[in-house]
Write a structure and sequence with these properties.
Number of domains of chain A: 1
Number of strands of chain A: 3
Helix content of chain A: 40-55%
Number of strands of chain B: 1
Distance between the termini of chain B: 89 Å
Shape of chain A: globular
Structural class of chain A: alpha+beta
Radius of gyration of chain A: 16 Å
Oligomer: heterodimer
Order of helices and strands of chain B: HHHHHHHHHHHHHHHHHHEHHHHHHHHHH
Number of helices of chain A: 4
Strand order of the largest sheet of chain A: 2-3
Shape of chain B: elongated
CATH class of chain A: Mainly Alpha
Chain lengths: 89, 579
Amino acid sequence: MLKQVLLEIKSAKEPVSLPALSRKLGIDRSALEGILMYWVQKGRLSDDTTQGLEPCHTGVCGSSCTGPESCPFIAQTPKTYSLKRNGKA
Amino acid sequence: MSNSVALQAQEFKIDYGHEIEDEIEHLQTIIDATSAIKSMYPPRWLAIKLLETDNDVIKHLRVLKGGENLIREAQVSIERLQKILGDDLDIFMADRRYGWINGLVRKTVQKPSTSNLTLSDKIDKVVTNRILGIPIFLAAMWVVFKLTTDVSAPYLDWVDGLINGPILRWFVALVNLVGLGGSWVESLVVDGIIAGVGGVLVFVPVLMFLYVALAVLEDSGYMARGAFVMDRLMHVLGLHGKSFLPMMVGFGCTVPAIYATRTLENKKDRILTGLLVPFMSCGARLPVYVLFATIFFPKNQSTVVFSMYLLGIVVAIVLGIVLKKTLFKGKEQSTFVMELPPYRIPTLRSIWIHTWGRTGSFVRKAWTVIMATSIILWLLMSIPIGGENTFTSIDVGDSVFADINKAIAPVFKPLGFGSWEASGALVTGFVAKEVVISTMSQVYSVEEETGEIIKESPTFFEDLGEILSTFVGATVDTIKSLPLVIGVDLFEGEEEAEPTALMRAVQQDFEKTSNGHGNLAALAFMVFVLIYTPCMVAIAAERQELGMNWTWVSIFGQLGLAWILSFIVFQGGKLLGLG
């Protein structure tokens, strides 16, 4: 089941939504999220959600942020998981 | 461990397959023979943990008698199993557990006999459809801009009246009260700060409506779908699918958008996306579009503004494809999984928090960066070049600022806006894009004599009354403007609002420099503002993320591309007999 998820992501020809992946594999959404987190821990997937936005949280970008805790322009970008370069399935 | 619990542990057993079960049994034998270990841990559990290379368990085992031997045996078992199974053993065992759990859930959990599709799934079947997805996203964005430009107009007029009416009068009265009337201080306050900062603050309602609309889309969950369909498009076009996520951030501000490129693992993808992000029209450019659309395209404001945003996306995608096939050739893009949150009704609190945060940032920028720039500009516009003029008592056209920009203006002549005022506004836009507007407010100096302001001045309480009554009027007009989103004009038959002095001055200037093709020149100007170099803070972010070389490429590349596209718009439009 774990490897099935990874294989499915690897073989997908375009970005996949989590609900669609859940339906295709017949795995409950919450279970699928747990599986994705497992692969993130194993280093096969990366969780990309807030990675790039850390400097804005520290207010060091020099823009007119409200303060070090948040940047008001960070859209509520959805969580994404992508295969790491050396990610094997 | 009590006998009853041990019995329960034996009854519950996941079958890991005969190869692994054989090794578990082998390790259990060794554990059973080692009393120090057997008394501490259930044998099967320990055997499984050793095969999974659980470092915490191994650490505790090392200090026990027989522990090192057991660890060595476990390592041999692992090597044997990996030769057979050909994969990380712990992953294989975890996979078995998940499979067992999944099977158990299927046998024991009864789900309602309704469709597996939730309401969100049903909506997504349409909204993320391969054919309908993008048109729906573009339609949603069009509604956002219709709301932003049409519905915010009454409040924009109110703020304009407030700043150039009561507030201006109060400041002038204050300056006269301290005996500085007619001095350079009054000039600084009126022609520098109020003209510059006020000129930008007028657009606060526009940005506020934009942020409200975006907050509704984000909070409802739709924005994630928009990002998903656009990511899919990017992937189809050969660009990295995740590129659109940083670009989406760029609609608010380019700076965090550039930092958001860190979500891309590959360096080439990060640089490419970082170069494309500035083409997303940030919130700071919106006042420029709104001003020019109001002046030159009053019947199609929202369409023109929307077109600028759309053009930015198109330019980014086209340039991205070209660069991907040339300078940034790379491996085929890996795909990704995106979580789509369930749809929900946006809460007023959440909308308010996001709107206030973003609008507050704009206002703060006005009182800091823009005020500082306005003061410097005022200084440059107050220093005369030769002649009999004196400090602050000059025609702006004879100032240091005008002189500098008269040297630059010829570059923009082929684009239809070759005046020093327009080129000066573009140069100062390097500080912050809002400064284009504040500079225009200052250079197209059309303020009445301050003596007139004082002579006709109502009392403080009359001013307060006027503010309140005009605010109520603006609120009523805003409500009446809401049906404009669906094309119903409740203002038909009513008198159009008089253009402001700034609007008249800009219109006259552009008509003059374009030899009567003011509309085309205005469009070319907006395209230039869209495409040219982003603000200095964004450049600093580019330098940090992309490196100095690519930053230079971005600066000069965007300047060149802006000039070319504006040229095409103006000259091409003239050839076609448009505008």
